[in-house]
Specification:
The chain has 12 helices and 2 strands. The protein has a single domain, classed as Rhopdopsin 7-helix transmembrane proteins (Up-down Bundle), CATH 1.20.1070. Strands 1-2 form a two-stranded antiparallel sheet. Helix 4 runs antiparallel to helix 6 and helix 10 packs antiparallel against helix 11.
Length: 314
């Protein structure tokens, strides 16, 4: 019997689970998720529609904003079948191939979003620190090449992950309503040290490097604004940058906490891990349209850009 129990096999399906201990609030959780999905999809779709239909917004900053909205919409689409399928229709099974596909798209899109946030920080750095060369540096062909490079980077680093997960034990119950690498790899019967090392390496190579460059760019922006702008323009620049920096902090801190709990916090609460997983996955697409549409007005940025350009010419 022990030999039979230790036999390795590949399960046909994984079983998704709801938030443990919150069965009494299942209906309210379902309503909350539906509301978040509806607001996120409508918000990002409206941003894309406005940018496409208004020629004034066909500028690098708004192109990057549209790239962020597309990434958020794709991330929502990748998670809707399992999250809403579980909470609305009690659909708990997901096939192995579908789980791997969802895992690939979720992590790839998160890495792409990290890259887009870096591009948006680079856009602000050029606009504020070197405004006279802004149009010559951020040309449409160059923007397209940068976007393509970052998409290929995300696909290249995530593509090997499903192939490193070979065989699974009899436990095939996920604690989330979607597939994520940190949890799927723990069910593998094979040695997962390679997965752990490679997963940490990909995080540092992509999101770790991106976040470092973002904060360095904001540090240089702050130094430039404080050195050449008036008090009014300093406040305008800080008002713009602070809200974008909040969006960046929400995206990265939630992912860092989630990765840390899975890799180092073995005694952490499973409910806390699940909640952090939902926050890192669903909150940025909900928050980004609010921040980047309300606080990034063409008039404010145009005034700041012209003032800094005049200061640089002097």
């Amino acid at each position: 019997m022990s030999a039979l129990n230790d036999t390795k096999f590949t399960p046909a399906v994984f079983l998704l689970t709801e938030i443990p201990g919150q069965e009494d609030f299942h209906l309210w959780v379902s309503v909350l998720f539906c509301f978040m999905y509806a607001i996120s999809i409508v918000g990002n779709s409206v941003i894309l529609f406005i940018i496409k239909t208004d020629p004034i917004l066909h500028e690098p900053m708004y192109i990057f904003l549209s790239m962020l909205a597309v990434t958020d919409l794709d991330l929502l689409i990748a998670t809707i079948p399992t999250i809403l399928g579980l909470f609305l229709f009690n659909s708990k099974e997901i096939s192995l191939d579908a789980c791997f596909a969802q895992m690939f798209f979720i992590h790839s899109l998160q890495f792409i979003e990290s890259s887009v946030l870096l591009l948006m920080a680079f856009d602000r750095f050029i606009a504020i620190c070197n405004p006279l060369r802004y149009a010559s540096i951020l040309t449409l062909p160059r923007i397209a090449k940068m976007g393509l490079v970052f998409v290929l980077r995300a696909v290249a680093v995530i593509f090997p992950l499903p192939f490193l997960l070979k065989r699974y034990c009899r436990v095939n119950v996920l604690s989330h309503s979607y597939c994520m690498h940190q949890e799927v790899m723990k069910m593998a019967c094979s040695d997962i040290r390679v997965n752990n090392i490679y997963g940490l390496f990909t995080k540092l190579l992509t999101m770790g490097l991106d976040s470092l460059l973002i904060f360095l760019s904001y540090e240089m922006i702050l130094k430039t604004v404080l050195s050449i702008a008036s008090n009014v323009e300093c406040l305008r620049a800080l008002n713009i940058c602070v809200f974008h920096l909040c969006a960046v902090l929400i995206f990265y801190t939630s992912d860092i906490f989630l990765s840390g709990m899975y890799r180092f916090g073995k005694s952490s609460s499973p409910v806390l891990q699940i909640l952090m997983g939902y926050i890192s996955l669903l909150f940025p697409p909900l928050w980004n349209p609010i921040v980047y549409s309300v606080k990034t007005s063409p008039s404010n940025l145009g005034k700041l850009h012209s003032t800094l350009g005049a200061s640089e010419r002097q």
